[in-house]
Amino acid sequence: MCIIFFKFDPRPASKNAYRLILAANRDEFYHRPSKIADFWGNGNEILSGLDMEEGKEGGTWLGISKRGKLAALTNYLEPKINADAQGRGSLVSNFLTESLDSFSYLKKVSSEGHLYNGFNLITADFKSKEDTFCYYGNRGAPEPICLKPGIYGLSNSLLETPWKKLQHGKQLFTEVLSRNLAPDSLVHELLDVMNNQEPQLPAPEIEKQGQHYIRPILREYTALCVRCQGYGTRTNTIILIDGTGHVSFTERTMLHSDVNQWKTSSFQFRLLQ
């Protein structure tokens, strides 16, 4: 399970306003090996965490490049997965390294969507003349879409599927944004939102989509911050892009598979326009 909230505004009213505010949780098995966020690629251009699971090394769940490319991935909740399907983390890392624009890349991915287990993928290009934000889910419509400015929520169903946990988190996210906080305070408040452990029950849609296996852990899965035995939220990420192209990237990640040990890393840079 993962969850992402974001506000996209390609033409903010002032340089101090934000073109993007994004808050995301990565939920995963605590023991799955991965690297915490850092720069990689040619010229240290791309910033992301990296999956180090054998056979899936180099994939990622969320990343951004200094060239203004951003992508994030969530899995689609299904009762069974195909163990022979291609790794989904490469969908993010490939976009960050390729030259295709966000819509063209998702168009390409949509033609190959059957090769993967269920996923949702958002891609964006932040450019000096025009910003674009696109979405594709291989369990939904056959074609990707370009998103209009607004506030969106994405979990483990299709974009904006009205799960109770998604609606609750989107409301909390929107309330924080309405306060016009200074950047440090904004990051702090969004981290609080993403670590909310209040179950959002009843959740018949989640139970139906996950079928039998989800029932024993349904209560834990309905919170924004998931806490199960050996599995749950192990990374929070907050990304801010202001009107001048300045990027603030904050990652809070679990250490040593221990819910009591965390490290917060912050990165500041300007997009290459």
Summarize the structure.
This protein is an alpha+beta fold and 273 residues long.
Task: Sum up the structure in keywords.
273 residues, alpha+beta, Penicillin V Acylase, Chain A, 7-stranded antiparallel β-sheet, 14 strands
Task: Give a verbal description of the structure.
The protein is an alpha+beta fold and 273 residues long. The chain has a single domain (2-270), classed as Penicillin V Acylase, Chain A (4-Layer Sandwich). The protein has 6 helices and 14 strands. The chain has helices spanning 90-97, 102-110, 164-177, 183-194, 204-210, 218-221; strands spanning 2-8, 18-29, 34-40, 46-51, 62-65, 69-75, 119-126, 131-137, 145-146, 150-154, 227-228, 231-242, 246-255, 258-270. The strands form 2 sheets. Strands 1, 2, 10, 11, 12, 13 and 14 form a 7-stranded antiparallel β-sheet that branches. A 7-stranded antiparallel β-sheet has the order 3-4-5-6-7-8-9, covered by helices on one side. A hairpin with a 4-residue loop joins strand 7 and strand 8 (131-137). The chain starts with a strand and ends with a strand. The mean pLDDT is 95.
Which helices and strands occur, and which strands form pairs?
Layout: E1 2-8, E2 18-29, E3 34-40, E4 46-51, E5 62-65, E6 69-75, H1 90-97, H2 102-110, E7 119-126, E8 131-137, E9 145-146, E10 150-154, H3 164-177, H4 183-194, H5 204-210, H6 218-221, E11 227-228, E12 231-242, E13 246-255, E14 258-270
Antiparallel strand pairs: 1-2, 1-10, 2-12, 3-4, 4-5, 5-6, 6-7, 7-8, 8-9, 11-12, 12-13, 13-14
